[in-house]
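Translate sequence into structure tokens.
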Amino acid sequence: MSSTALEDDSVPGQAAARPGGRTAGEARFDDVPLGEEWHSPLYAMACRQFARAADVLALEDELRTRLLEPRRSLVCNFPARMDNGEVINYTGYRVQHTLAMGPTKGGLRFAPDLGFGECAALAMWMTWKCSLAGLPFGGAKGGVRCDPHALSAGEMERITRRYTAELLPIVGPDMDIPAPDMGTSEREMAWFYDTYSQSVGYSVPAVVTGKPVALGGTIGRHDATGLGVVFSIESAFEELGWSLPESSFVVQGFGNVGSVAARELHARGGKVVAVSDIRGAIANPHGLDIPAVLRWVDEHYYLEGFPDAEPVSGEAMLELDCDVLVPAAREEQITERNADRLKCKLVVEGANGPTTPAADRILSDRGISVVPDILANSGGVIVSYFEWVQSHQKYSWQALEVQERLRTQMRSAYDRVRGAAVELGVDNRTAALASAITHVSEAAKLRAIYP
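Result follows.
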């Protein structure tokens, strides 16, 4: 799904080889109002969520104006040399939603359909996520429009380093701190860290999080988002009086978030009945052997062909019988087209923006509760904050301490959301946004407007 006004305009044959890249003979034209380049369906969705929470809070117009649109953004077009000697142009983005809270924080996404609007929406959600978790950051998001699966390691390194160089004026350990996201990993963060450090002449480990442990990364950062999803499920189950070993789970997405969530749910006795990746889904109503699934993916890369399970389509998987559905793939997966067919009792959002506002209303009418993304998947940014603090202090914490700190912060955030939901008489998503917006708006109000 392309969530941007910048549609893929590559010439025939070029898109298949280098999605997101352009040769010198190609051009890009946009019919977008000046100053509104980030407008897209996904950004509109983020704005509708903000507006609903702002209405509940009776937020004054000045603060709505200051918090609605991105504060700073950068689009860069840069060349990269391919392994065959060809030079391809790529487009990179970085959007910083608000500077009121301190430095900005957010992932770097490499994807063939990445655009300005997607980055703007994700930056806004990251602001609310950081605020809800009690972190001293505003939200940011960025990345490169490319298909990382079509690129060699050498090509990825050259693209990452050149993109980093383009961001030098607006990133830094106390300005904007990137982290891994879809299509990137600790490998790309190591290249980002080294490129920035080379530019200033000394090592700056706090410029990026999600680094390899050998370069100052935090033990447990890789699992943090998926583990945070499980901590959110545990908090919800405690409130609802449900038992995890007696419950069934469907996990959409088997990447960094989904695979860890499935593994941890299985380890705690939960019955994971279906998982999926970009090629489809596998299901077993008696429960999947998740360690065996993980070994299969290590060997075959995809879930496809795994024995002891039936193949199902990704769309059908969302409608399987289960107690908890964990959408941990992409945005806008639960919509008005399928929300009335879900057979779960609880949705816990491992991905950003997997449920549309229309679907939210349908789920609410059906009595299906949602643990929203800015709460459920905040484990990654929380542990990124721990890594940033450790990089500044030149001191590392042990894995168990990191995990317990993560559990404590996520439990506190869950309790704040549920408290706000009861106090305001609203659903969990609106409560989470209202709690986060209250904190950010207070900071913006105290800092006032300069000059």
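Note: Confidence is low (pLDDT under 50) at residues 1-17.
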